[in-house]
Amino acid sequence: MLKRFVELAFTLVGASAGYYLGPEFFGLLQESPLNFGKVPGPHYIGAVLGAVIMFVATFWLSNNVVKWIRWSEERLVKIPAADGLFGALGLIFGLIVAFLIQQPLAQLPIPGVNRVLPFIFSGLFGYLGFRVGYKKRDELISVFTLGRQNKEGKQKNEEKPYVEHKILDTSVIIDGRIADICRTGFLEGTLVIPSFVLEELQHIADSSDVLKRNRGRRGLDILNKIQKELDVDVLIYEGDFEEIQEVDSKLVKLAKVLSGKVVTNDFNLNKVCELQGVSVLNINDLANAVKPVVLPGEEINVQVIKDGKEHGQGVAYLDDGTMIVIEGGREYIGERIDVLVTSVLQTSAGRMIFAKPKLLEKAL
């Protein structure tokens, strides 16, 4: 059906071109050695010849044209509606600008150029308008949203508080603690799950490596749990930043567009967000903040379970998983002893406590 439509379209184009160009074509023939004399009805004969020529040309062109149309259709179907809308608006704006400058260009005292330049500028500005509208769609959406919020004024702000977006990255979803935090109600606002994060989770879940596959499936289960079991607003962000390759860079860009915060436990992403002025909620920082405070000189009762990296060291753990390095604790492996805290090392990756046996302190 599509092929027949293409053949009909080519035939009509050929007939139209022949109708308008027929008199000029036959006029040139009369001035050439191939003079057939005056041709009756040059418009109609030209239309017939043009239609026949273009119809014959479709035998070679129609298949390629049909393939191109179907390829274009597949690409257009995959484009999100918002992307296509803003691309079309950009195209229209570019064509309007080109139309405004066509009149001055058409008056240039250069034969030929004054006819060609308007077409060139129409194509150029149309292309630029489409690309700008497509690439800047997220910024334009945020600008329109901000303008609407400002127009509604303070009354709406009093009736409905500002909802902040919390953008989840892949690591914090796989970690799983985000579901427990949402259940407690400490995390307010809307959880934003970008489509490119979902794609990365799916790739991990489809990995041939068993460990990666289990982590990916765990992340998908966590998301399903958050959506169906928890009383929290979840937004699946369908947009993408095709000009950016790295998922972390896309998260930073999305946080800027939505004026939101990135929720992560990735140390490197944490630093990148801080450098670019994006707010970060680090799950590890939250976990460290709610751990019991241990001060130097405090006494703790622990069980030494293994030896440390340095000579004579022993290692124990608190109930929350905090590691305690005990100087001279190797000889107490397997025993429960009292230790005195000497120092505490706190980082975004976790907390480490250094201590020494209380028995040694008494001996000294």
Automatic annotation (TrEMBL):
Matching SUPFAM superfamilies: PIN domain-like (SSF88723)
TM annotation in the entry: 41-61, 82-101, 113-130
Domain of life of the source: Bacteria
SMART domains the record matches: PINc
Domain TRAM: 293-354
Keyword vocabulary terms for this entry: Hydrolase, Magnesium, Membrane, Nuclease, Transmembrane, Transmembrane helix
Entries under Pfam families matching the protein: PIN (PF01850), TRAM (PF01938)
One term of GO molecular function: hydrolase activity
Cofactors required: Mg(2+)
Xref: PANTHER family: AAA FAMILY ATPASE, MEMBRANE PROTEIN
Name of the featured protein: PIN/TRAM domain-containing protein
Organism of provenance: Thermoactinomyces intermedius
